[in-house]
Design goal:
Elements (H helix, E strand, L loop, with lengths): L1 E5 L6 H12 L3 E5 L4 E6 L2 E6 L2 E2 L5 E4 L6 H13 L3 E2 L3 H8 L1 H10 L7 E3 L6 H7 L5 E5 L8 E4 L2 H13 L4 E5 L7 E8 L2 E9 L14 E4 L4 H13 L4 E9 L2 E8 L5 H7 L3 H17 L7
Parallel strand pairs: 1-2, 1-6, 6-7
Antiparallel strand pairs: 3-4, 4-5, 8-11, 9-10, 9-11, 12-13, 12-15, 13-14, 15-16
Helix pairs in contact: 1-9, 2-3
Amino acid sequence: MKIAILSRKRTLYSTRRLKAAGRALGHEPGVLDPMRCVLLLEGDTARIEHDGREVRDVGAVIPRIGSYAVEYGISVARHFQLKGVACLNPPEAIAVAKNKLASLQRLMERHIPVPETALVRWPGNIRRVVQRLGGPPVILKTLRGSQGVGVILAESYEAVESILDTLWTMGQDLMIQRFVAESRGRDLRAFVAGGEIVAAMRRTARPGDFRSNIHRGGTGEEATLSAEQARIALEASLALDLRVCGVDLLESDHGPLVLEVNASPGFQALEEATGIDIASIIVQKTVRVAQAHGAMHPELV
């Protein structure tokens, strides 16, 4: 089967591993930079060109949508779907997961515990909202961002007001979240594939940082989730309609909280910490999705 890996960079660890795993499993994986794709609507036909050549005979797509030009990347995945090609994660699900507030709203709607969060845009509301969240310090987050980018620890009312005022003038909205002090610098990453947790690790921030992201210098070690943590991680993936995702959990004094659900999770640290072949699991799940889709579109399998 021809599998298109949507990725900005062929040299990324996850991209290289997915391509190698696809080949090892007997498929024909190829990497398409979504920014170099042209999407065409001609009459009742949807076409995709990459570097001037039409993309044909693709059986499945693995979207690896990062934080740059998110809407364009999702549009490319949606165009493949319009052509009848199976996507590992549905484009609309990726769109919700990529918006931090929208994903938290969906999780809360399904009664999945998340950190107390607020969105404000009027300066007069800031202090009252920060007080409602337990007072400073609080976490400020842009609605889009990954790998710890756009996450700020504000340790005073004045800092919150200054940061919000600066970023509002740049057209950015920021969420304010309660700072869960008992989990400072630590979280759990659960990797979900096909309704199962296939691996988990505990991430710990580098000294002096509150963000546990590996790309910010954090470290990871294999972890075993409790029954409650596993249940919540699986429910989060189902709530966002993601077949493959990374669910980040905080360990609060009141139980697990879903911090974020990543529709295109990196997995280098997870493979290194657990020894589990995550890339092959992703490819195998992609093929199963395409085969199920192929019952309606046999020409794609």
